[in-house]
């Protein structure tokens, strides 16, 4: 993975730290939603108001965490890009001028490097974020109700049999 190869490791650890905390947001939202459903089912205004305060405070905290996570992501991407550019410049300086054209080097610096950032580094970072979110949601769902979780995964693994298949032909 590119994120383990390029960039400052301290910035990667900082990004992973904030990503792990930010990944708990999905579990928090599910918990709050469950509490609101519980308050409505019981007809308790006290539970509703307590959860409203908890939700408001939690969302403000997760807003701050999301901003810190985005800042850590940007910082790590910048350090990875800088390291990639340093490797590229060292390669350019070692190669004889007759072997490479200036336009190829400029094209790499402007186009290919941006594609590497978008399709490589940021995609891997999104994969890690989604992995953490999935793991925490899975652990929370198993902790909350293992039988519902098992039933959901059982249905989910067999749902493709009952869904229409799209062949790509619009005729």
In short:
The protein is an all-alpha fold. The chain has helices at residues 2-5, 9-23, 25-42, 45-94, 102-144, 146-158.
Q: Helices and strands: which structural class?
A: mainly alpha
Helical proportion?
Answer: over 70%
N-to-C SSE series? Answer: HHHHHH
Percentage of residues in DSSP E strands: under 5%
Q: Averaging pLDDT over every residue, what do you get?
A: 86
Radius of gyration: 23 Å
What is the distance, rounded to the nearest whole angstrom, between the alpha carbons of the first and last residues?
42 Å
How many beta-strand elements? 0
> Shape from CA axes?
elongated
Which sheet architecture does the biggest sheet show? none
Poorly predicted spans: none
Number of helices: 6
Structure description:
This protein is mostly helical and 171 residues long. Helix content is 84%, strand content 0%. It is built from 6 helices and no strands.
């Amino acid at each position: 993975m590119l994120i383990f190869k390029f960039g400052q490791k301290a910035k990667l650890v900082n990004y992973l730290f904030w990503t792990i905390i930010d990944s708990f947001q999905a579990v928090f939202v599910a918990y709050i939603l469950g509490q609101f459903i519980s308050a409505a089912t019981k007809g308790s205004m006290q539970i509703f108001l307590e959860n409203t305060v908890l939700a408001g405070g939690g969302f403000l905290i997760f807003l701050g965490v999301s901003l810190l996570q985005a800042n850590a992501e940007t910082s790590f991407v910048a350090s990875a890009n800088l390291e990639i550019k340093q490797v590229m410049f060292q390669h350019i300086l070692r190669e004889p001028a007759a072997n490479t054209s200036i336009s190829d080097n400029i094209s790499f610096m402007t186009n290919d490097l941006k594609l590497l950032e978008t399709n490589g580094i940021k995609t891997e970072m999104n994969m890690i974020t989604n992995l953490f979110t999935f793991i925490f949601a899975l652990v929370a769902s198993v902790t909350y109700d293992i039988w519902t979780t098992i039933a959901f995964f059982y249905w989910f693994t067999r749902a493709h049999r009952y869904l229409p298949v799209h062949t790509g032909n619009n005729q």
